[in-house]
Amino acid sequence: MHAEAMELPTITPDLPAPQAFDDAEKAVAHLEKLYEVATRFLCDNFLATLKTGAPAHRYRAFYPEVRITTASFAQIDSRLSFGHVAVPGTYAATITRPDLFRHYLCQQIGILLQNYSVPVTVGVSDTPMPVHFAVANDATLFVPQEGAADFTLRDVFDVPDLTTTNDDIVNGTYVTPPDGAGPLAPFSAQRVDYSLARLAHYTATDPEHFQNHVLFTNYQFYVAEFEGYARKMLADPDSGYTAFISTGNVTITSAEEPLHTPAKMPQMPTYHLKRADGSGITLVNIGVGPSNAKTATDHIAVLRPHAWLMVGHCAGLRNSQSLGDFVLAHAYLREDKVLDDDLPVWVPVPALAEIQIALENAVTEVTELTGYDLKRVMRTGTVASVDNRNWELRDQTGPVQRLSQSRAIALDMESATIAANGFRFRVPYGTLLCISDKPLHGELKLPGMASDFYKTQVSRHLMIGIRAMEHLRDMPLERLHSRKLRSFEETAFL
Known about the structure:
By secondary structure, the chain is an alpha/beta fold. The chain has helices at residues 24-52, 102-116, 131-135, 153-156, 168-171, 189-203, 221-235, 290-300, 353-367, 397-405, 415-425, 447-473, 477-480, and strands at 10-11, 19-21, 58-59, 62-70, 89-94, 120-128, 182-183, 213-217, 241-246, 250-252, 270-275, 281-285, 307-310, 313-316, 326-335, 378-386, 408-412, 429-437. The strands form 3 sheets. It has a 5-stranded mixed sheet. It has a 5-stranded mixed barrel with strand order 14-17-16-15-18, surrounded by 4 helices. Helix 1 (24-52) packs across helix 2, helix 6 (189-203) crosses helix 8 (290-300) and helix 9 packs across helix 12. The longest helix has 29 residues, at 24-52.
């Protein structure tokens, strides 16, 4: 018998007719309702199937979607990098976790309503919701591995589909579907769900704790300093910070509370200094290497942060530099290789003025050096990122020549990856590194030297990153989100 002849009849929840809204909050409330119906339907039937065995039906629910149709070529404020579409037409986005993204969705839909004076339509999409992502919202349920249940999961429920779990929109390779609707948001619902699950796995903290300003580092030494700063902020009732979240979702809300460290640490320990409106700071220790840097930014990007910065250690490449000096990247030499298929190396990754100014001002505040004196401790130039931690052990003729030709002043393994993915995902990015060794000049990172260096420099370096984020937090979104990050045909949503 042919496989298609054995396909089970499909049961779906009631599919209400699409509704038009001219109020963003009401539109998002309806998205939440549709999402709750879909996930509850899948969870209930999944639980029942685990108890009773193979059912006589297939169960399917769909993601909700928001859609807008415009017919006008009216010019939107050209200074804005978001909130408008390239040409008149219909644009749609499938939505997941509208509870998690409520503020973002209200903001983005509200801007569209204001700019075009036409309603948005909220309804059920034709994209099936994988049972894995529905079950992820219920802590009492989990999807057993293939073969553990007495029925084949994909025969009864939808599973993740790579045709809708990809980066086609941000990579500029999106193919318009048969209904002719262009993309309204940079990610599909399945792509977002996939990353939310990965974030929880890699960071051991729930996605809802992530803040809009993300610091990346490549050393655990920064974590203790971040916790110390967090405790100072929690002790200050005027700081605006409300809680500090550590690995395993361990939460403290006062400076004196103990913070227990789990026995098993995740691959990328992550810590969140929260504010009620999400404008706090998240610190991610991505460890060493471009692969980790790409993995972290691939998934954090779906949360649509307002900025991410790399504040890690690097090798200084100039004899005039000293250990402990700072490097403000204004260009990147990309030899990390992990993004070549998504963002070719010939694509320039520009420095963003808003980020550069915030970082330089933060260095000035923390070091109390200004103008020409600032050059004593900070140099601006090209940062090279490579995929070989022991690059200096190879024949140096080729690598050193390229570094010199590119005017590189520092080398690490993560910064160019983080900047390139920021460019690709339209997330404002920047890099401020601290020189921890100078291998070309005989100053290797040795144990005793490293200890003294870390003790004196980590606190100051981290504080510069925090100060820069606080400057960016006070900046209007329309100024922070640069038009330099937007392509010819861009999604209306940030």
